[in-house]
């Protein structure tokens, strides 16, 4: 980190916090604090929705995942535009017309209070886990780059976000999201351009794509069907559709964004804005990871990217020998990659693949050494992109990309804190404990709840290092709950005979089915959303139909 | 505490109706999938 990087990063953070405080002035009523008095234009909401979904994990984990596993993760997002169409057509107008603050409030209007309470509790548990992970990701960044302790980073980041979210409510959150998304777009463009720019002079962008393709990193679409294959076209379109339906249709952190719209039309346009831009944006981020892989074909990467976790092993003689063998394997692969870029012939391809295999074998052996020395699992996927950024990119660009990572983290965390507080106050406190207090009392309690969830998130983030690849961890945690939650809303919107008892029993059955599936089968996590939803709908519809028949 | 429920439902910009906008967005998705598939096939060595 050079002075210019510090200026860019520090300037961005200060600007975001001050801007949030400025835009959040006058949030003195519960309607303005939680729904911005329904005054937001579509473009601000559209960027806010996008910023909320794009967490720091998106930058750190997705690029690393592309480096390790190729671009197939983009298929995870194929269901998103379809889900947004359904949400825009059905859920957004229904929520708007019913005049609710939370998605779960709608469930009481449709079913009963216990269904609303159950759904809001599921949301609070699930999103509480998510916000902790979202806070942990930038802590990983600074622990690698600056050597700060992860806990200090968590506390500083958490305090900044809590400051403007508590003070300004959803207006501060939405308007800072707009700024943060602009920084993120600039960061993505700078990272991709930087990765291509840093390739050797005799390696063009097309050569880079060819080498990435030869290494299996450009596998953006896989047409084969396999229940156990995590990312293919079908799991993305079907499983992803259910996951994204659940996220955008039932998760208060997203529903609250489009409930702030001036009108139903503004809500719908903001959702379509995301439907059009999200997949290409993810493609660009994954392509950056693939280009970083190509860069490290010609520049020796560290044997292991996570220096902290590798430290116990690095002191051993076995590791030093492995490092020497890795250097040799890297030189062979570099020569093979250069020859392949020149000739593109089958013999050069075979030589390159053999060299790549030897290099991977050396790395696998080193991972095993690290695992044995530390006594726990080793995963450095989240460290790859940052190693590239901080060691190789020029001054200013490093600061910009770090600012983008911070912006991504802060936008997600602030929206999640705001929605957690909203559900806590509207669905639990106001509904169950104190129904007729004055408006300013609810604003005060909402501020208190925001601060509480912020402190909770920081506490949870302290245990982040015990998880593996963060991006998958967040999505897997979500998938345990999401499908069942979606099932309850499908019952509400599509099954007039379904009632509260059926929905609640269905929710319990759905959660149990997903939990059993995750423990006893090898089915990939994206399908959990389909299973959870279908079980809830089947149980809820069956019980609702039987009651209707009995009452006749 | 109670807000008036939203009741308006304006047509979308650029398109005659919401279903047409949704159809265009779905078509955009399938175009992207096709392009990504061609990208995968082109660079699969």
In summary, what is this structure?
The complex is a heterodimer of chains A (552) and B (45). Chain A has 552 residues and is mostly helical.
Structure description:
The complex is a heterodimer of chains A (552) and B (45). Chain A contains 21 helices and no strands. Chain A has helices at residues 3-23, 30-35, 42-53, 56-69, 79-98, 103-110, 113-145, 150-197, 205-214, 233-250, 252-259, 264-298, 307-314, 317-343, 346-374, 384-392, 397-433, 439-461, 470-494, 500-520, 526-551. In chain A, helix 8 (150-197) packs across helix 18, helix 10 crosses helix 11 (252-259) and helix 13 (307-314) crosses helix 15 (346-374). Helices cover 56% and strands 0% of the residues of chain B. Chain B is rod-shaped and about 50 Å long. Classes of the chains: A mainly alpha (552), B mainly alpha (45). The interface between A and B is large, with 44 and 30 residues.
How are the SSEs ordered, and which strands pair?
The complex is a heterodimer of chains A (552) and B (45).
Chain A: H1 3-23, H2 30-35, H3 42-53, H4 56-69, H5 79-98, H6 103-110, H7 113-145, H8 150-197, H9 205-214, H10 233-250, H11 252-259, H12 264-298, H13 307-314, H14 317-343, H15 346-374, H16 384-392, H17 397-433, H18 439-461, H19 470-494, H20 500-520, H21 526-551
Helix pairs in contact in A: 1-8, 1-17, 3-8, 3-11, 3-12, 3-17, 4-12, 4-17, 5-10, 5-12, 6-7, 7-8, 7-17, 7-18, 7-19, 7-20, 8-12, 8-17, 8-18, 9-12, 10-11, 10-19, 10-21, 11-17, 13-15, 14-15, 17-18, 19-20, 19-21, 20-21
Chain B: H1 18-42
